[in-house]
Amino acid sequence: MREQPNAAPRGTSWSPPEGWEAVIGLEVHAQLATDSKLFSSAPHAFGASPNSQTTEVDLGLPGVLPAINRRAVELAVRAALALGCELQRESLFARKHYFYPDLPKGYQISQYERPFALGGGVPIESGGQARTIELTRIHLEEDAGKSIHDPAVTGGGVTHVDLNRAGVPLIEIVSEPQIRGPAEAGAYLRSLRSLLRYLDACSGDMEKGCFRCDANVSVRRSGEERLGTRTELKNLNSFRFVEKAIEFEIERQIELIEDGGAVVQQTRGWDERAGRSYEMRTKEQAEDYRYFPDPDLPPLALDEEWIERLRAGLPELPGSRRARYVADWGLSEEVARVLTEEREVADFFERLVADYPDAKSASGWVARDVLELRAAAGRSLVELPLEPRALAALLRLVDAGRVSPASGREILAELAARGGDPEKIMLERGLEAVADSGELAGLAREVLAAHPRQVEQYRSGQQKLFNFFVGQMMKATRGKASPPVVQQVLRETLDE
Q1: Which are the contacts of 377, defined by CB distance < 8 A and separation ≥ 6?
Q2: List of E strands, 211-356
Q3: Which of 16, 148, 304, 401 matches a 20 to 30 Å C-alpha distance to 271?
Q4: How far is CA 184 from the centre of its chain?
Q5: Cα(418)–Cα(412) distance, rounded to whole angstroms?
Q6: Within this chain, do residues 94 and 206 fall inside the same structural domain, yes or no?
């Protein structure tokens, strides 16, 4: 499933039962957009044949040594800078021990006591209010492999292991427990994903597992300060799944407590078909993982000059762009949000406005029509043959009255499908607007003669019926008439 951020729901009317409060913290695993893995030279292209993208390091063979991927560190630092974190000039890698079949070494290389980034925050907007969810830390770690239980793949009764993902570079972004409901969790994830995509640090492809989260959920009586016992919802890779799973878990915990039971700290999965969470295992504590410093990796030292170069190279981020669009171009907050949520859309829009300076008119075409065509094509905007300069030329044709808005959208669909010159498409398809006032005057008389009751009502004071007559004229010309000329001719004819 491909997430379309501009189309995603922005909130929900759901709230916990009266007298209760939810406390939620999110741990997001974002796959860094590198060509090779965190500690080996193996590639990690999605969809490759099982176990075809591994090296001796990924397989944990005796005698091999990991070597840090500089590009992964660079992307991680860019993310931390953009999120306002405090970078630690020296951090340590640790071995996290737990025995899964998809961890051939028997441990995962991560960071524990000394991560590379502390603090920071993610700005969110939910329920009409803006605030920042603070972060605890960001640390680097390698991903595990994948266990395949699907009987269609394994033949049933066995589990296969694919180690292509083992060693893929991740950053884990851990929030403070400041989220209070499913809607805020969704807003947090959308904001964070948008920022990481702006930085080219993470593709954000949720359907490929490149951006996924674990949600720690607990409940407490309103007014209490002590945190309740939490459960962890694992590996949620859809905004909708996160919101639904958190909502269910909050209600499950409240019902359990009100019935005299107690919440048990455990890891739970989410069954989308059943619409409920289920127990996976009792939740481990940090000591269960037996962390200790990795003896094969030296401390990760960050050079001050290098950090400042990365800081200077950060792009303008979504929040700053959104504020600029509202202040400089008078766009509404909602339209500005749609245009800035994805960097490719904001870049396209700014290239369009550089050629066609009516930002308000341009914003409507991009936020509505261009994004609808992109969604229908199932491709990114940069993959479409639509160029901003071609859209600018089309909008000038519309402004000049040579193309009606309806015909303009037909031409835009052709530009998005095959590219080309809008004026040439207009002429080839016979879409040039009918602007002959004499021809339209005759048609106006025919339309009015066909609707005598509405004409009488209009002349009796029901002025809103004017739009009805405009619609009939546009229908009669199959949307090809120039709207300004149609309105002028109709008013003159009605006043006769």
Answers
A1: 384, 416, 417
A2: 211-221, 231-236, 266-271, 276-282, 292-293, 300-301
A3: 16
A4: 14
A5: 10
A6: yes
Q: To which H or E segment does residue 410 belong?
A: helix 405-418
Considering just the CA atoms, what is the radius of gyration of the chain in Å?
29
Look at the block and give the residue holding tokens 């969790």.
185
Distance of alpha carbon 217 from alpha carbon 98, whole angstroms: 23
207 and 237 in contact (C-beta within 8 Å)?
yes
Identify the domain boundary among 403, 428, 453.
428
**332 and 362, same domain (yes or no):** yes
Of the candidates 122, 124, 123, the residue with the CA atom closest to the CA atom of residue 11: 124
How many C-beta atoms surround the C-beta of residue 72 within 10 A? 23
Q: Which helix (H) or strand (E) holds 94?
A: strand 94-97
Kindly report, residue by residue over 183-207, the tens digit of the pLDDT: 999 999 999 999 999 999 999 999 8
**Which structural domain, as residue segments, surrounds residue 444?**
437-495
Q: Pick from 374, 405, 428: which residue ends a domain?
A: 428
Same domain, 81 and 212: yes
Q: Does residue 13 sit in helix, strand or coil?
A: coil
Rounded to whole angstroms, the Cα distance separating 115 from 139 reads 5
pLDDT of amino acid 9: 39
Provide the number of structural domains found in the chain: 3
423 and 441 both lie in a single domain: no
Q: Write the DSSP string, 365-422.
A: IIIIIIHHHHHHHTS-GGGSS--HHHHHHHHHHHHTTSS-HHHHHHHHHHHHHH---H
Residues 420 and 441 in one domain: no
pTM above 0.70, yes or no: yes
Residue 10 has pLDDT above 70, yes or no: no
The CATH number for 456's domain is 1.10.10.410
Nearest to 212 by CA among 244, 238, 246, 249: 238
Q: How many angstroms separate the CA atoms of 460 and 463, rounded?
A: 8
What span, in angstroms and rounded, lies between the C-alpha atoms of 470 and 177? 56
In the block, residue with structure tokens 């870049």 = 347
Q: Answer yes or no: do 151 and 231 share one domain.
A: yes
Asked if residue 472 lies in contact with residue 440, where contact means CB atoms within 8 angstroms, the answer is no
DSSP bridge partners of 26: 215
Distance CA 392, CA 404 (A): 15
pLDDT tens digits for 377-414?
999 999 999 999 999 999 999 998 888 888 899 999 99
**pLDDT 10s digits, 351-374:** 999 999 999 999 999 999 999 999
